[in-house]
C-alpha cells in the first residue's frame, strides 16, 4: 500500500510517499520520497515561529513540494495521511485543505493522523527497526511535548507522564535565546555545551533537577529556564558554554531518571525515544549508559537522525496503521485540533 503523507503542524512543510507492507504484526516501510521545506530563515529574525507567516509558507510550499514529489510512481497512491493536530491550527488547516483536494482529485480515502503518533512511528523509518516488542514505553520529546507513553501496540497509547509546564524542546529554545543563540535554539545550545571544558568548572554552576524525586512520571522545565535567567543576571561574567552544559545536563538527567522510573514500574520490553529532542547526542548517550549500567533487558530505539524532526514520512507510517483498521475520515469531517492528545 502506498501512502501520501502531509505534515504542516508547525514550521516545516512536509510531503512524503511511503510504501507500507506487513500489516500491524510486521510493518515494513520504504520511503519513496520524503520532502521537507524548512522555514528556519523566515522565522529566525523573530526568534521563534510566527503562526501567520508559517501558514502562508505552507500554502505556498505545498503545491511546490507536491509537484516535486510527482514522478513515475508517485501519481499512484492508495490513501492520503494528514496531520490534524496537535499544532498551530492555521497551519494544520493548510495541510487539511490540501489533503482534501488531493483525495477528491484522485478519489482516495483520507486518514487523520495525530502528530505525536507520527513521531512514535518515526522509529520504523530507516528499515532496520521492524521488531518492536510490546508493551513498549516511549519518551516523546519535542518543542511542544514531553510525554511518557505506554504502548500496548501501534495506535494503543496511554500517557503515563507529561510536563506540567514547558516542553523540554521549548526549554532548550528559551534558554538558547537567553544565551543569545540563534533560532532554532536546541541544536545551537547543544553545540555550545560541547565547547565547555574543564577550565569552566571554576564557575561551579549548579542548576536544579526539577521533579527528579517526585513519585509520578511528570516533568517541569519552566523553573529550570528561570534558574538560567537568574544565573545570568547574578553573574554577568559567567561562561555561557558552561551554563549551556549544566542546563543540558540537568534537563537530560531528569528525562533519563524519570524514564527509568517508568521502566521499573511498567516493565516494557522496548523503549522508544522520539521527537525533535531525540536528536540530542547527550540524551542518547546518557540513556544508553544508564540502561546498560542497570543491566535492563530493554531494547532501545531512536529514529534515524533525519526523521527526528517534523516530517511527512512519519505521518504516512502512522497513517498506514489507521488505514489497516479502515479508520478513514470523510473529507468534510476533517478538523484541525491544536490541542489534540494521543
Ligand atoms: O519534533 P520537533 O521537530 O517539532 C515539534 O513537534 O515540536 O521538535 C523541535 C524541538 C525544538 O524545540 C528544537 O530546539 C528541539 O526539538 N531540538 C533539540 C535538538 N534538535 C532539535 N533539542 C536539543 N538538542 C538537539 N540536538
Ligand atoms: Zn514534532
Protein model, in words:
- The protein has helices spanning 40-43, 51-69, 89-106, 115-121, 168-178, 185-194, 222-234, 240-266, 281-293, 313-324, and strands spanning 2-7, 12-21, 28-38, 79-85, 110-114, 136-141, 146-153, 156-162, 270-274, 299-301.
- With 342 residues, the chain is α/β, with parallel strands linked by helices.
- The protein has 2 domains: 2-124 and 307-333, Nucleotidyltransferase, domain 5 (2-Layer Sandwich), CATH 3.30.420; 134-268, Nucleotidyltransferase, domain 5, CATH 3.30.420.
- The strands form 2 sheets. Strands 3-2-1-4-5 form a 5-stranded mixed β-sheet, with helices on both faces.
- α5 (168-178) packs parallel to α7 (222-234).
- The longest helix is centred in the C-terminal third of the chain and has 27 residues, at 240-266.
- It is globular, with a radius of gyration of 20 Å.
- Bound molecules: 5'-O-[(R)-(carboxyoxy)(hydroxy)phosphoryl]adenosine (KG4) and zinc ion.
- Zinc ion binds next to α4.
